[in-house]
Amino acid sequence: MAAPGRSVLRPIIILVLLMVNHSAGYHSVCTNDSCKFLGDCSSDSDCAAGLYCLSCPAGFQLSRCVRSTATDQFSLVNISLPFNKYAFLTTHNSFAIEGEQSHTGVPRVTFNNQEENVTAQLNHGVRALMLDTYDFEGDVWLCHSFKGQCHDYTAFEPAIDTLKEIEAFLTANPNEIVTVILEDYVQAPNGLTKVFTDAGLMKYWFPVSNMPKNGGDWPLVSDMVTNNQRLLVFTSIRSKEQSEGIAYQWNYMVENQYGDGGMNAGSCFNRGESSPLNDTSKSLVLMNYFRSVPIKPLACVQNSGRLIDMLQTCHTASGNRWANFIAVDYYKRSEGGGAFQAVDTSNGELICGCQDVHSCLPDRHYTLLHYQTDIDQAIKGS
């Protein structure tokens, strides 16, 4: 279990959020894009840019404006550091989208992990996507499985549809880098190579030959952009690094336990396929924090203070290394800053040793989340 004083290690913003959440007198009314961070709201249109209106009965009363967009650390600071010196918001089962129409003609009977399509995820600052790939109907599909197989009632869509969304995003945003982490069950020879080629993504491919071995730094982000090597793809099948030139994930990163086993407070340990988290011969750190079976109404609480606590726990377990990838379900749901703040924390620590990436600005004149003034006013008025 975590030591009693562990909570003091959370970023200041989490403490402020808790004070506001328990302040019965803070029920400001605002409309027409005037609601700021944590302001009560009735619709997304009430909230200022970068926020949206969320109801979270498990965390707070009424509906409030919470963060909806990640900080662009590259434009905020610079892109002169190695790739492994940055953190990226990651969606678990990015393809398992609530409301996604059936592509098989059979009603889907499985769970969802996200609320928006991949294009929307990328536009809101997600930069790493976790996808499950299967052989299905003579093609590669994104799918949940039953007894290890993709079925018409667990399939979401052909992988090429999602990959084309990634291609469109990379083409429209020439300075962005996207990472794809595959839980890979494709057995068809060169099946993945074909679908990535057909989606037009090979022109952005970051080659395995340029990936560092033995814990070395990755290339500079600026060089990756200049060379247009802006798509990193990892597979869970070791042999494909040799046969298809797709990086075997655990040759390059460590990863903590996923699902319920990875959500115990004060405990962070590697999943079975990964080497121990403190294995510094792997330059990247992936932190999972999501339930084995997603429960949407609880995601807002799960993605808030508990996520920040686990970030600190996994930092210690990983040999005092901060997570490069922070993977969650329902990524926009939180009590305030959520997964966006967790990534800001990791980026701040990675880039300049600060608890928030905005503190890395040269003049250091930063107000947490741009909304501290509103929070202070709310506390004074409570």
Feature tags:
382 residues, alpha/beta, TIM Barrel, 10-stranded mixed sheet, two-stranded antiparallel sheet, 11 helices, 12 strands, 25% helix, 18% strand, globular, disordered N terminus, disordered C terminus, PLC-like_Pdiesterase_TIM-brl, OLC1v1009801C1, phosphoric diester hydrolase activity, signal, PI-PLC_domain
What would you say about this model in short?
Keywords: Signal. The protein is an alpha/beta fold. The protein has helices spanning 12-21, 73-76, 118-123, 159-172, 191-198, 221-226, 240-243, 296-302, 305-317, 338-352, 372-380; strands spanning 51-55, 63-67, 88-91, 128-136, 139-146, 149-158, 178-184, 231-235, 247-248, 253-255, 284-288, 325-328.
